[in-house]
Amino acid sequence: GGFLGSGPGGAIYKFFLPVQFSDFIFAVFGEEFGLIGIVLLILLYYMLVREIVHIGIKVEDTFAKVYIVGFAFLIGLQILFNAGVSLGILPVTGITLPFVSYGGSSIIALLAGLGVVINIAYTNRD
């Protein structure tokens, strides 16, 4: 992908990847948007996970705290596993990249979990 990438829809190596829309979406994203896009995506994920953990720290209910921090940990692990698979560090596992991959069940489950986090944050605001 280079520094700026080949542009949206401009990736040509994605046709050689077995499951480009779910397992290898990180590689396709890197080819299309380059280093700048990957750094921006990782920064957005970092901000999301950091904010979820921050919400979990502020909540006083123990169950809600464990749920929220566990949800942040789940998102972080999915990001690390998908990036590791795309970089060839880990074997292909079938884990999707949160909020980016094509997996329908994954996106529904992640959005439902994020909705619970937002509800807990809304009911426990100062």
From TrEMBL:
Domain of life: Bacteria
Location in the cell: Membrane
Major location (coarse): membrane
EC number: 2.4.99.28
One GO MF term attached to the UniProt entry: peptidoglycan glycosyltransferase activity
Top enzyme category: transferase
Listed transmembrane segments: 24-46, 66-90, 102-122
GO cellular component: cell division site; plasma membrane
Keywords attached to this entry: Cell shape, Glycosyltransferase, Membrane, Peptidoglycan synthesis, Transferase, Transmembrane, Transmembrane helix
Listed GO biological process terms: cell division; peptidoglycan biosynthetic process; regulation of cell shape
Membrane topology: Multi-pass membrane protein
Catalytic activity: [GlcNAc-(1->4)-Mur2Ac(oyl-L-Ala-gamma-D-Glu-L-Lys-D-Ala-D-Ala)](n)-di-trans,octa-cis-undecaprenyl diphosphate + beta-D-GlcNAc-(1->4)-Mur2Ac(oyl-L-Ala-gamma-D-Glu-L-Lys-D-Ala-D-Ala)-di-trans,octa-cis-undecaprenyl diphosphate = [GlcNAc-(1->4)-Mur2Ac(oyl-L-Ala-gamma-D-Glu-L-Lys-D-Ala-D-Ala)](n+1)-di-trans,octa-cis-undecaprenyl diphosphate + di-trans,octa-cis-undecaprenyl diphosphate + H(+)
Family assignment from sequence similarity: Belongs to the SEDS family. FtsW subfamily.
Protein name: Probable peptidoglycan glycosyltransferase FtsW
High-level lineage: Bacteria, Thermotogati, Thermotogota, Thermotogae, Mesoaciditogales
